[in-house]
Amino acid sequence: MASLETTGIQKSESLAIIKVRMVLVHVLCLTVFILPVTEQIIYWSVVLFFVRVFAWEAGSHRYFAHRSYKTSRAFQLFLALLAASGGQRGPLWWAEHHRHHHRESDQPDDPHSPVHRGYWFAHFGWLYDPRYVDTDLDKVKDLSKFPELVWVNKYHYLFPYLVVIALYLLGQYTTVFGSSGLGFSAIVWVFIVSTVLSVHASSCVNTLAHGQKPGFFNLRRFNTDDTTTNVWLLCIPTMGASWHNNHHRFMNSARAGFYWWELDLTYLVLKLLSLFGIVWDLQQVPDHILQEGRQQGAEQQAS
Ligand SMILES: [Zn+2]
Ligand SMILES: [Zn+2]
After folding, report:
1. Is the full-model pTM beyond 0.85?
2. Count of domains in the chain?
3. Model pLDDT for residues 222-239, shown as the tens digit of each residue
4. CA dist 295 to 258, 261, 288, Å?
5. Backbone dihedral angles phi then psi of residue 237, each to the nearest 5 degrees
6. Domain presence at residue 64
7. Neighbours of ion ligand 2 (CB under 5 A)
């Protein structure tokens, strides 16, 4: 095997391929109107959607970007593979650009702030900007010291294809989805639709939890230096990531829903995994920040 560089710039695929694939998957979503579908296919599409959201929120975001809990090297690799198979590029790429986002949140150099770049650039455009497609391994040295993570990051685009092949074989030659002969339906519904929706759920955190005037659907509990809000309406499809104002107040926490009434499915799954010793040292929110949030939240309700 050729040696793997663990420092410097790791080049991405060609931008042209990335753009063509983005257009193609969106067009293929439209074939749901003509392809045969079964209850089982819908069920697995929903399951895969939440698996993808968990992959980017628990894996790429809370683990690789923020290191908000600990795990074994083996489960770390599993999270990296899960994240890569979810179509949001490599986990080191994700972590590098997300750390950049926190450093510059809603400032002119933020890669995806709707305040400075507009809604569509923040939702999608930045993903196809040459400034943000490669991975600077030196900016994520805590992760790039693991050669297996660098390898997954480099070849991230292969893992979604493996899932596609597996789903085609299952759909075409087994009755897992209700009957055989459903290979293309399995690819489109179970892989493409779930993946595309999970990517949009992630992008909605950039665009609906930043740069929006607070209102009924999005509350601003903490007076952070950015424009973040907590979008309670999106807490289920983002598995808790939309408690984004909380998260920008204390990004090191393994939970984004800071209070028991702020539903955070990612944290609940992480708690469950901690019971089995798969993850541990889930970082908690300090008491003074919880107190600050209660006070500021009460003041906002009173005003
Ligand atoms: Zn943010
Ligand atoms: Zn974050």
Report:
1. yes
2. 1
3. 999 999 999 999 999 999
4. 14, 16, 11
5. -65, -20
6. yes
7. 251
